[in-house]
Design goal:
331 residues; four-stranded mixed sheet; 60s Ribosomal Protein L30, Chain: A; homodimer; 12 strands; 2 domains; 23% strand; 10 helices; seven-stranded mixed sheet; alpha+beta; Phosphoribosyl-aminoimidazole Synthetase, Chain A, domain 2
Chain lengths: 331, 331
Amino acid sequence: MLSEFSLIDRFFARRASGSTYPQRAVLGIGDDCALLAPPAGEMLAISTDMLVEGRHFFPDVDPKALGHKALAVNLSDLAAMGAKPQAFTLAFSLPKADADWLSAFSDGLFDLAERHGCELVGGDTTGGPLNLCITVFGSVPPQSALRRDAAQPGDDIWVSGTLGDARASLGVQRGEWSADANDAATFRRAMELPEPRVALGLALRGVARAALDISDGLAGDLMHILERSRVNATVDADALPRSDALRRLSTDIQRRCTIAGGDDYELCFTAPPSARAEVVAAGQQARLPVTRVGTITPLDAAGAVPAISWHDASGAPLTLTLQGFDHFHAE
Amino acid sequence: MLSEFSLIDRFFARRASGSTYPQRAVLGIGDDCALLAPPAGEMLAISTDMLVEGRHFFPDVDPKALGHKALAVNLSDLAAMGAKPQAFTLAFSLPKADADWLSAFSDGLFDLAERHGCELVGGDTTGGPLNLCITVFGSVPPQSALRRDAAQPGDDIWVSGTLGDARASLGVQRGEWSADANDAATFRRAMELPEPRVALGLALRGVARAALDISDGLAGDLMHILERSRVNATVDADALPRSDALRRLSTDIQRRCTIAGGDDYELCFTAPPSARAEVVAAGQQARLPVTRVGTITPLDAAGAVPAISWHDASGAPLTLTLQGFDHFHAE
């Protein structure tokens, strides 16, 4: 067993201070607080996510993948804001201080952090059931931030990458459906190693209107844009981008995974039709496909509850009872 | 059972947005990120703390006290930096969404937040074993920040308030020692409702050199100043400030509680002897006693490991085997 301080030092503080990317914090790990400021004229974009064993990951998860994912889901929030990663704090509770586990976890964490120039500036460790809480800081000029409340009727609705593979992996692991070994590996990679769409978020500054990242399923998350922007949406369920692996499962499963899957960490955003060429260019710049899946429409009446109308490729309406993942929803 | 979003909205988002203090964030709860910037010329001081049931608090803790303490321990880190509270994020996992519990918890949290003008700007909630992770943001001009690495030989060592009551409460609850009902209530209040020394931290800008908050016991925490500043210290164990209630326990218990107690959340700081009047004035301004307990001394040799020399009121050396609380220490 390592003591808390040597443990932090061995796996986290040394690597944080030895990193080759420019150090953004005036004062980082080892004091009561880190000191950080955004570049002149910009603001810090701040997001926090907590991951719990048994709910967000399986107890036997590869610790390197877990280190990646814990930071990835936070960077995904920065991407959704069009913010550039700067720094993060890491608090975690662990049942025991296992050096091999921590070594692999910190590898996954720092590999991703270094790719995004995101510096570890503080943290806290304690004993307890496994729980990871990261708070991430990016920078963005406030007028360029991709907010949820900026969608307008007539906007196209876009989705990056493909949806549903992470949910397909969960289904395979739960025995809800099966897939061949290659497809199962594709699904599992999507679930364990999501790639935050930071480059796309930056490329969409000044191009997209509203944006968010899809973490709880498109159906639930798109509602957040609709509610904050006071608009409706129509979406073509058959236009939702999906992997070849997912296409080999039934249409029903494909819809379930793409619409209400969760854990996608793709961006969903709106942009005026006049910006279609710019959106496609932003996707090319970020080396990521972007797919137009629907349209923002006006509310039925001023006080109406926003809603999504789903249809298939032929335009026939679809009635969906699937919901986005809701952590405290009554069973 | 409430769904996640209505739960957040009911207890946290509405109260955050309905607060009367000035809103510091351009964009707060409800988007992918909050947007925050420090005042011109200042930096954000950032700290994160995680509290776990069974380790940092008892399962039957009063939820209102827990809400207070979860934020208080974070504000204490800002105080130790001389930073002014601005905002915080709250992530927590809960076994179940109990409305009464959440109502009391949020009362304790927001009562303290509002007293310090500290705005809730984001968060995350999930199911799981009870775990609270707060990240707090303050502002401080970087040249005024009270760092751990600024102590100099000859500096006085000061402590605010009194030490040891929280540890005394733990001892009563564990049956290690007993106290009458009044004293037990005094101890319990110290443990459950620590008051972050924010006003003192602000008053000490430009007066104190090094500072930190005592969360794991003076013996362990003072070592952090010594290690970062590359100095030694001599401390008079009998000079450590303690409550009348603690003075009614044995000298041995008093020493154990004041030196290695933990959960004190008082400030320990150093200042040159020429600043004694200013330190006392800072204490008066913050309406908090400050007590001189020792002196910073040079290291024995350039590469030596820093150490604390303890003595009693007569100057006789004390040998202490007590250690500060170390979360992963081998039993």
